[in-house]
Design goal:
It comes from Acrasis kona. Pfam families: RGS. It is built from 10 helices and no strands. It is mainly alpha-helical.
């Protein structure tokens, strides 16, 4: 009877893979498939192989969720992409094709300001000149209220740190909303799949190093 060897090979393969002994697990799985050919015929085996590789591919392209419970999955994925220079290149490439690269550049510069408090008026002025002036080649499409608030703060002789921070956060929120709109299209592209695989590979490498 072939049934006991089938069960043994299947269970052994599963256990080995759970302990990340992938090579040995694959050997037992191949033996399992050969026994399946003898026992059930080629059609069933083809289905098993298809299921195995489709599940592996799905695991590789799923981006691991951010651990921040306050963020939904989409926001977490976008932050992972933007805050890692190696991953950011994938969405930058797409934004170049979509003529919206200024959003990524603006996000990076705004985050630098927020990461290095207190934000100086000169830094906000530089950002305004680079990304918010209508004459700028890298002008970002931001809500009118955000632009007005930024102008108000910059027109003050000595704006408070809180006012500068509030204006910068408004800018960041506006930019992030633009990027979310872009992401809804980006996630349907091959660049997104490449980014997803790269992100998973990085997470696996981090676990191995730790």
């Amino acid at each position: 009877m072939l049934l006991p060897p089938l069960i043994i090979c299947s269970v052994t393969s599963t256990i080995l893979k759970q302990y990340n002994i992938t090579a040995a697990g694959d050997v037992f799985y191949l033996i399992f498939l050969l026994l399946m050919v003898i026992y059930f015929g080629g059609g069933v085996v083809f289905s098993c192989i298809l299921d195995m590789y489709s599940s592996r591919y799905a695991k590789r392209v799923v981006i691991i969720n951010n651990e921040d419970s306050d963020d939904d999955n989409e926001v977490a994925v976008i932050k992972n992409l933007l805050n890692n220079e190696a991953l950011r290149k994938y969405i930058e490439k797409y934004c170049q094709m979509e003529f919206s690269l200024e959003n990524i550049l603006g996000y990076v510069d705004a985050k630098k300001m927020l990461d290095e408090p207190p934000i100086q008026k000169e830094s906000l002025q530089h950002f305004y000149d680079e990304y918010m002036k209508s004459s700028s080649k890298t002008e970002i499409n931001l809500p009118a209220k955000t632009v007005q608030e930024c102008k108000r703060v910059l027109n003050e002789d000595d704006p408070s740190e809180d006012d500068i921070l509030k204006a910068t956060n408004l800018i960041m929120n506006g930019i992030f909303q633009n990027i979310k709109d872009t992401f809804s299209r980006f996630c349907k592209t091959k660049e997104y799949k490449e980014a997803a695989r790269a992100m998973n590979d990085m997470r696996v490498l981090e676990k191995e190093l730790n």
